């Protein structure tokens, strides 16, 4: 019964093989086009997806981050009359679930009257006791709801699961719609597809209506995400952008005196509503699950005090449990006085003794799931288990029946799906989205459909490369011409000066700047090393190799423990050890701080600040962080130079897009500050490593090459390489954008603009900068470089110390409040008296 | 009525400064039919930005503390004056109801919904056939629930060794059961878990116990401890407390602070802090009989 049997409902053709009426447009569309044309369209869908970089993360799988999203070129067409019936059922279901949640967190009449087993509410591991007995802002318990739908062999819509906590998928549906509207504009217009923008407008109204009535004006609404590692982080960013809400994480927020605040550079800003994408139990480490860093301590108290609106309110996960479906028909009668309009997939809670014996009798027709729901685990399919596994399952069912629920999956309908070969039928399941609308609910005219090769009922717990489909609902007859969907212009909040940005975002941007620059310096150093380690290099070039390896080690790129002094070789083959070290910088997958590790950090930070990056900046940063992905670990030095060249070209593009296109906001200032600090610090390291006592021409040449200043030097001094002019150019020459003094000057400028009057702590960082600047300006380079060079070494060391102190102060000044809060353990028992008993 | 003063002080010392802290304290004893609370004060150093009391889901008194000033030590001191009366004990029909009948009534009687939540798993205590098997010698077929619990109270006392070094709050119940070592909290959890595994309703009680100083020595201030025991629901009677750490039935020496499904519901002091680094904790409890 788990296969798409011949009895599956065919959405495309009726029993007589005729196209269903509402599918005629799609039928004609398919017959009018050659396979080549269709494949071309599918390719353009894929291209648009790639362009948007739509990804999803698969939790718990190392290689499972950011898998590409698949969208079929053929939309799923819904008949209007059937749609309207379905909507009535969905709205009823949402009203019912809302009442059930309210009862569980209030009078608990349903449990008392035996309509709902006490085990399922009071024994639910995520029944949040601190949320019992008070009404959340906005009174209702369910503002956003999603249902997973399949069609049984008779074509009847059947609900597989209910999503009441933080329903995901609406953002993907939106994104699919934007791509499809652009790919098939004619078909879109001809089918008169109803817009989904109206639904999102309503959703915004609903969310904003949850603002406590304490302050007038536009409420501050934030989307609370678990961060870039969340399986739906793309959607969070996409939805936040579409709705115009700032995307934040738990550590961006703080609760003081039961009021939720956003931490910004200019201080705390009161938050009115959180559109939360963090699970119920993880929202407050104080009142709920200790040890969670995704939420914000004190959120429950703030909600209880009526100071924050939450969509959905805490505790709504309770109606997601699969076991609830078994009781919905009775609950609909008791709560609404109505018959349940939309049937659920047949569900049996094993905690009921009668259900358990029934389940054990027809086990092979069922799938077994945790009663309270756990989306991570696969359901058990007894029919597909071996004898031993099956016996163990039966044992578990008997031992703890209340933990399990059995569902009889009735099979999914089939729709045409395009693949490179042609059209084939695929099993369809889809998610519909609702939002609270006054006293009722509104249904998004559309949805997120997925083709399930093996119907698993876990429609969004994606473990395969499942294909998605856009869901098209025709407009009411006589309504206006459809408008192609588009992303609205984001409200530009940078006009306010950007100081209201979450500090964490600026911290991430600052570190992005540092890692991008670290990447640049490391790539240049490594390239210089490789060129000196290869046969084609000039005969005396390898002399500088040891100094370059030393610089890599001092920069923290290669581990200190390794032996880095290769035997100097002249004209012969490079020492194997140097080659291994240099290749390791690029290709070693275990070294956390090598180029690969640096690019991984660039990737993570890029994901985290995505909402603040222009499309071009995003693309070029993604290309940068992917630079090494396509290269296997075993590479030769020759190829490595090509790879490094490519990385340096991409880095130039990064500089280009940020310099040319980024608004001179605080975000830009922090990105640039990060780069300046890193470039200054690494330049000092290079000066120290590449100008050892008795440095020769090859050393200076390598140093100038790494600092990209060889041409400047030659233009200025022709080819006489001398220590003092080299040091002057790289250390104190404020006209050379690669010099340390240039970085310091740029940092001073940033600080002038960031300064807030009367802020004492800021001036501590500034004082370090001034000290560094005057040390560099007043240094007598000629004299410092004379003799044994100890004067120079001292100057470099002093400068490095001041720069690191400055860097620490920057962190302390702007970001010290950003550390994650953590739970402190309760006292342990100390009872020596009783020990003796 | 016996009068006591209880002085319970908890100190945290942090390695680096804490800049913002939220704490919840379950330190204020709740008034009960056999327990009069005639005075209570909670002192927090440094001065909290806010401090207020609310009743939690179980009806316990919870204090919410927020500290905004930078600090590297936190001291929370609760002082209480308590009067204790003798408690009722089951008699007549309630003392005779068999534990099987009690379990059946708990499952079937909708009037017992409030009680029924103590039959289910909680964060630290999960029912298990091993726990049921452990309790079996005390819970002979058709034996009265009251008698069975008294026997079980003795059984745990006889078979478990008090050993503060054997466990901490993260030690799983299975390990406690295997090693038969632990502290009052562990024994209470074993009792609660075993009763639940038999289909009975059991809860965890947090409080204090008046201890006697050794005969030849004076009472030492602060050497007492916060204590924990278990309670079972006996249909027709109500909640009946028992203390498996000492094999006694709490009377006028046990001060009740509050109860919950397990320790996690009534932890004396929890918190979430920003900053702090590593920390150390010191607890001092002084239970003094007055007159």
How is the topology of this model organized?
The complex is a heterodimer of chains A (837) and B (291).
Chain A: H1 24-31, H2 35-52, E1 55-56, E2 67-68, E3 70-71, E4 76-77, H3 80-104, H4 109-112, H5 118-121, E5 144-151, E6 157-163, H6 170-183, H7 185-190, H8 197-208, E7 221-224, H9 233-243, E8 246-248, E9 253-256, E10 259-264, E11 267-270, E12 273-276, H10 299-304, E13 309-311, H11 328-336, E14 343-344, E15 347-349, H12 353-361, E16 367-370, H13 387-399, E17 404-407, E18 413-419, E19 422-437, E20 440-443, E21 448-451, E22 467-472, H14 503-533, H15 545-554, H16 576-587, H17 595-608, H18 615-625, H19 637-661, H20 666-690, H21 697-706, H22 710-717, H23 723-732, H24 740-754, H25 760-778, H26 781-785, H27 790-815, E23 822-824, H28 832-836
Parallel strand pairs in A: 3-22, 4-22, 6-14, 7-8, 7-12, 12-13
Antiparallel strand pairs in A: 1-2, 5-6, 5-19, 9-10, 10-11, 15-17, 16-17, 18-19, 19-20, 19-21, 21-22
Chain B: E1 2-28, E2 35-45, E3 50-55, E4 61-67, E5 71-84, H1 93-96, H2 99-108, H3 113-116, H4 129-135, H5 145-159, E6 161-162, H6 173-179, E7 181-182, H7 184-197, E8 202-209, E9 226-234, E10 238-242, E11 254-260, E12 269-275, E13 279-290
Parallel strand pairs in B: 6-7
Antiparallel strand pairs in B: 1-4, 1-5, 1-12, 1-13, 2-5, 3-4, 8-9, 8-11, 9-10
Report on the architecture of this protein.
- The complex is a heterodimer of chains A (about 850) and B (about 290).
- In chain A, helix 6 crosses helix 9, helix 14 packs antiparallel against helix 15 and helix 20 packs antiparallel against helix 24.
- The C terminus of chain A is likely disordered.
- In chain A, strand 18 and strand 19 form a beta hairpin.
- In chain A, the strands form 5 sheets. In chain A, strands 3, 4, 5, 6, 14, 18, 19, 20, 21 and 22 form a 10-stranded mixed beta sheet that branches. A 4-stranded parallel beta sheet of chain A has the order 8-7-12-13, with helices on one face.
- Chain A has about 850 residues and is an alpha/beta fold.
- Chain A has 2 domains: about 400 residues, no CATH class; about 325 residues, no CATH class.
- The longest helix of chain B is centred in the middle third of the chain and has 15 residues.
- Chain B starts with a strand and ends with a strand.
- Chain B has 2 domains: about 110 residues, Sandwich (Immunoglobulin-like); about 170 residues, C8orf32 fold (Roll), CATH 3.10.620.
- The mean pLDDT of chain B is about 90.
- Chain B is built from 7 helices and 13 strands.
- Chain B has about 290 residues and is of the alpha+beta class.
- At the A-B interface, strand 9, strand 23 and helix 28 of A face strand 1, strand 9, strand 12 and strand 13 of B.
- Strand 23 of chain A pairs antiparallel with strand 12 of chain B, so a sheet runs across the interface.
């Amino acid at each position: 019964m788990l296969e798409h049997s011949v009895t599956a409902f065919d959405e495309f053709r009726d029993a007589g093989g005729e196209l269903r009426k509402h599918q005629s447009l799609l039928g004609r569309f398919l017959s009018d086009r050659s396979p080549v044309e269709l494949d071309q369209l599918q390719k353009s869908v894929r291209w648009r997806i790639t362009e948007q970089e739509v990804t999803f993360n698969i939790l718990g799988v190392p290689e499972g981050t950011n898998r590409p999203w698949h969208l079929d070129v053929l939309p799923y067409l819904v008949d209007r009359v059937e749609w309207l019936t379905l909507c009535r059922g969905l709205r009823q279901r949402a009203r019912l679930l809302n009442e059930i949640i309210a009862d569980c967190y209030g009078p608990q009449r349903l449990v008392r009257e035996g309509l709902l087993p006490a085990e399922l509410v009071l024994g639910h591991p995520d029944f949040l006791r601190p949320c019992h007995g008070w009404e959340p802002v906005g009174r209702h318990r369910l503002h956003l709801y999603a249902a997973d739908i399949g069609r049984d062999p008779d074509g009847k819509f059947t609900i597989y699961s209910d999503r009441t906590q933080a329903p995901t998928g609406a953002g993907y549906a939106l994104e699919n719609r934007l791509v499809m509207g652009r790919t098939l504009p004619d078909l879109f217009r001809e089918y008169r597809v109803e817009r989904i923008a109206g639904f999102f407008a309503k959703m915004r109204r609903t969310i904003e209506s949850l603002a406590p009535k304490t302050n007038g004006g536009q409420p501050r609404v934030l989307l609370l995400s678990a961060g870039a590692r969340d399986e739906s982080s793309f959607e969070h960013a996409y939805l936040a952008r579409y709705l115009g809400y700032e995307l934040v994480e738990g550590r961006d927020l703080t609760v003081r005196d039961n009021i939720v605040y956003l931490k910004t550079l200019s201080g705390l800003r009161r938050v009115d509503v959180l559109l939360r994408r963090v699970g119920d139990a993880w929202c407050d480490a104080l009142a709920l699950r200790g040890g969670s860093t995704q939420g914000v301590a004190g959120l429950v108290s703030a909600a209880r005090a009526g100071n924050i609106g939450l969509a959905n309110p805490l505790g709504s996960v309770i109606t997601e449990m699969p076991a609830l479906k078994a009781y919905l028909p009775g609950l609909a009668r008791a709560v609404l006085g109505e018959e349940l309009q939309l049937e659920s997939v047949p569900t049996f809670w094993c905690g009921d003794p009668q259900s358990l014996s029934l389940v054990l009798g027809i086990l092979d027709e069922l799938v077994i799931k945790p009663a309270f729901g756990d989306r991570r685990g696969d359901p058990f399919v007894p029919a597909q288990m071996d004898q031993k596994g099956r016996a163990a399952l039966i044992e578990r069912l008997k031992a703890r029946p209340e933990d399990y629920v059995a569902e009889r999956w009735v099979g999914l309908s089939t729709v045409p799906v395009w693949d490179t070969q042609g059209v084939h039928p695929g099993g369809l399941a889809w998610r519909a989205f609702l939002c609270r609308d006054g006293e009722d609910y509104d249904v998004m005219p559309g949805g997120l459909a997925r083709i399930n090769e093996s119907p698993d009922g876990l429609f969004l717990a994606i473990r395969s490369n499942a294909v998605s489909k856009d869901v098209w609902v025709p407009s009411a007859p006589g309504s206006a011409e459809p408008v192609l969907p588009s992303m609205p212009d984001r409200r530009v909040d940078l006009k306010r000066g950007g100081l209201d940005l979450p500090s964490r975002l600026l911290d991430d941007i600052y570190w992005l700047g540092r890692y991008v620059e670290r990447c640049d310096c490391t790539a240049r150093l490594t390239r210089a090393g490789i060129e000196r380690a290869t046969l084609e290099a000039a005969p005396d070039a390898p002399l500088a190799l040891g100094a370059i390896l030393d610089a890599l080690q001092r920069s923290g790129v290669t581990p200190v423990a390794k032996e880095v002094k290769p035997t100097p070789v002249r004209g012969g083959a490079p020492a194997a050890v140097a080659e291994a070290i240099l290749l390791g910088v690029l290709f070693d997958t275990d070294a956390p701080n090598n180029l690969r590790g640096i690019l991984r950090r660039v990737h993570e930070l890029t994901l985290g600040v995505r909402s603040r990056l222009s499309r071009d900046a995003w693309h070029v940063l993604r290309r940068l962080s992917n630079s090494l992905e396509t290269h296997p670990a075993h590479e030769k030095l020759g190829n490595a130079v090509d790879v490094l060249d490519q990385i340096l070209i991409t880095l130039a593009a990064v500089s280009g897009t940020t310099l040319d296109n980024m608004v001179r906001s605080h975000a830009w200032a922090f990105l640039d500050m990060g780069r300046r600090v890193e470039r200054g610090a690494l330049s000092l390291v290079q000066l120290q490593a590449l100008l050892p006592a008795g440095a020769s021409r090859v050393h200076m040449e390598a140093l100038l090459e790494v600092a990209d200043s060889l041409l400047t030097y030659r233009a200025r001094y022709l080819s006489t390489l001398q220590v003092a002019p080299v040091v002057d150019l790289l250390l104190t020459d404020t006209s050379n954008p690669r010099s340390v003094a240039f970085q310091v000057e740029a940092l001073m400028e940033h600080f002038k603009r960031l300064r807030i009057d009367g802020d004492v702590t800021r001036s501590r960082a500034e004082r370090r900068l001034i000290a560094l600047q005057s040390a560099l300006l007043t240094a007598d380079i000629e004299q410092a470089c004379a003799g044994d060079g100890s004067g120079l070494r001292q100057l470099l060391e002093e400068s490095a110390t001041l720069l690191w102190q400055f860097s620490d102060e920057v962190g302390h000044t702007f970001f010290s409040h950003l550390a994650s809060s953590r739970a402190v353990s309760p006292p342990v028992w100390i009872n020596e008296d009783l020990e003796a008993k | 009525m016996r009068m006591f003063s209880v002085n319970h002080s908890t100190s945290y010392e942090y390695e680096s400064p804490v800049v913002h802290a939220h704490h919840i304290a379950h330190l204020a004893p709740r008034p009960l039919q056999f327990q009069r609370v005639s005075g209570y004060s909670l002192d927090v150093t440094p001065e909290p930005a806010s401090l207020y009391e609310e009743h939690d889901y179980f009806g316990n008194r919870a204090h919410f503390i927020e500290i905004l000033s930078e600090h590297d030590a936190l001291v929370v001191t609760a002082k209480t004056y308590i009067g204790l009366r003798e408690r009722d004990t089951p008699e007549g029909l309630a003392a005779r109801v068999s534990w099987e009948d009690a379990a059946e009534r708990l499952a079937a009687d909708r009037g017992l919904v409030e009680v029924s939540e103590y039959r289910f798993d909680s964060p630290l205590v999960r029912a298990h056939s091993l726990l049921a098997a452990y309790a079996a010698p005390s819970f002979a077929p058709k034996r009265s629930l009251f008698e069975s619990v008294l026997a079980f109270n003795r059984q745990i006392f006889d078979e478990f060794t008090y050993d503060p070094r054997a466990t901490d709050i993260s030690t799983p119940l299975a390990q406690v059961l295997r090693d038969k070592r632990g502290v009052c909290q562990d024994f209470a959890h074993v009792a609660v878990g075993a009763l639940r595994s038999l289909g009975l309703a059991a809860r965890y009680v947090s409080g204090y116990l008046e201890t006697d100083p050794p005969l030849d020595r004076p009472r030492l201030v602060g050497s007492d401890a916060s204590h924990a025991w278990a309670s079972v629901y006996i249909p027709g009677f109500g909640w009946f407390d028992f203390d498996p750490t000492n094999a006694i039935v709490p009377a006028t020496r046990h001060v009740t602070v509050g109860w919950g499904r397990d320790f996690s519901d009534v932890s004396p002091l929890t918190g979430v802090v920003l900053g702090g680094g590593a920390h150390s904790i010191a607890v001092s409890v002084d239970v003094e009989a007055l007159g």
